[in-house]
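Lab notes, practical 5.
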Amino acid sequence: MNLIEENYSDIRNLNNIWGNKFSEKRINFLDKAGTVKFLNSGYKCITKYFPSNIASVLEVGVGSARFLTKWKESNPNCICYGVDKSSDVIEYLQKEDRTHNIKLSMGDALHLPFPQNFIDTIFSEGLLEHYLPEHQLKILTEMGKVATQSVIVTVPNYYCPSLRLAMLYTDTKGNKCNWRYGYEKPMKYSELVALFKKAGFSKVKRVGGWCPWYGLKFYKWDTQSRKKILPWYISILLGIRFILETITSLIDPIFGNVFSFYFGYEITVIGKK
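Output from the prediction step:
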């Protein structure tokens, strides 16, 4: 099976992958210290570029709704929408108290269930890397049709050192990554910027990256038992990660967060119409 066939197969299975994740409820994104730091850093990077007069926002591939719920809490007058292809994800979120004031619906990123120029700002985090380039372009074009002001996209960074090491550990040949979430291919700033321009955005800007050592917690994923297979040296890795994160948090701000900008676990690009 070639890469394209594998990708199509994995996309068809994405609904099951994410549905299983939320139905099992084995991981609460908001309860883990490392993930909370990741959430806060990503939230600041993304929402910093929301328009000052924003009245509505949509997250495509809403998943856990971790960014959207945080934004709604501090901006109660903003109308928040969340779309996801997985019925299990939507069902899970609709039962959560924290998402009761978010308008949730099923929808495909390639065909958003909204009219043109309907929502001020659209964003996605951890979505585009699961698709082939031609699908990525269609998704960005679709977002551009629905947004009135801007589209913000965040993806895993090709140049993140900890992510590259994790990919090597999981034997993904440094090209694509079969995590527990299916097909995933980290991207470069240049690739993401080029996609935005092809999608017709007039102004495109790289706006940042964060948490360069977030991926330094290697594990393999057993698809049969749906459990992590942790290496014996996991405690050593976590200790190293803590040291590296501490050093980076002290030094990086002095140099304008250049290291996190270029080598963060995730990177963000904004396109304005």
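Observations recorded by the TA: The chain has a mean pLDDT of 82. Residues 252 and 259 are 6 Å apart (CA to CA).
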